[in-house]
Amino acid sequence: xxxxxxxxxxxxxxxxxxxxxxxxxxxxxxxxxxxxxxxxxxxxxxxxxxxxxxxxxxxxxxxxxxxxxxxxxxxxxxxxxxxxxxxxxxxxxxxxxxxxxxxxxxxxxxxxxxxxxxxxxxxxxxxxxxxxxxxxxxxxxxxxxxxxxxxxxxxxxxxxxxxxxxxxxxxxxxxxxxxxxxxxxxxxxxxxxxxxxxxxxxxxxxxxxxxxxxxxxxxxxxxxxxxxxxxxxxxxxxxxxxxxxxxxxxxxxxxxxxxxxxxxxxxxxxxxxxxxxxxxxxxxxxxxxxxxxxxxxxxxxxxxxxxxxxxxxxxxxxxxxxxxxxxxxxxxxxxxxxxxxxxxxxxxxxxxxxxxxxxxxxxxxxxxxxxxxxx
Length: 375
What we know:
Strand content: 15-25%
Number of domains: 1
Largest sheet: 11 strands, antiparallel
Distance between the termini: 14 Å
Radius of gyration: 21 Å
Number of strands: 11
Structural class: alpha+beta
Shape: globular
């Protein structure tokens, strides 16, 4: 894959020998901050100075049960193990945990939290994509297994911070992209003297210095903030003239494997509940249509990642490729076009590279017309 195909999602797989590394994409929305307008430089500085969020939780069985109950019927052969046996949790499930619980009176008008919000007039938020990487030490540990070394009822810490803020476009078309980084570590690794204060500070310092330290997993979430619809746009939407067809990208090559599903209102509601997400574009069809300009409620960006991870993981376990204890070690993806409730979508997999050390995969999601919505 050439470096110019940066929108193509690639996944590195860990074999029983060593890791296959994937070339990192260049963010398509990067801007030269030195040349950015003064107002944006102030916004960027304020966002980057916000205090990181530090969470410590037990990997409880309730979340585990709710996660897999939500996905049954929407992923291939979803199996929920007995929680009493304390199974290892999947990467997909881990990424749905550690959600900041902002009190309801402090939520914004669209139901989102204000933690990453740049302020007015940037009142619309969408999920633009993200990336996940496992630590080099954890990749070595995966030689003997195919799951994360994290089990139910184990204590885990997560540190979340705003890593980067970028401006793309000008005028009414301007967008602010906020990159949120989350790091996960065993809670015992972050605890030490004074009830964990010393080790927790070391954990935070490692993030500041861009070091892995005790982190097991790094996740980046790319959020895009846009201005509210203008009065003219809202009038057009109300009259039914402003709801154009979704512009999906041209379909990619034929997949080696695909799984088709149709997201329902119950799926979107339950996933919102599991991830503590009150964003109205996933829950309220009237709001999604007449305020945001969508024809129906939207499938969550994180849900598309969950589906891709679950489908690929199941395919690896059921195929001969899984021999040798392979596991997903890195992933990057972009949400290009919205996917809607009650509209068919297809998760597609294609092996792109195979060596004696592992495999790389392209994974994407197609919308109801066959065009690419996530890749």
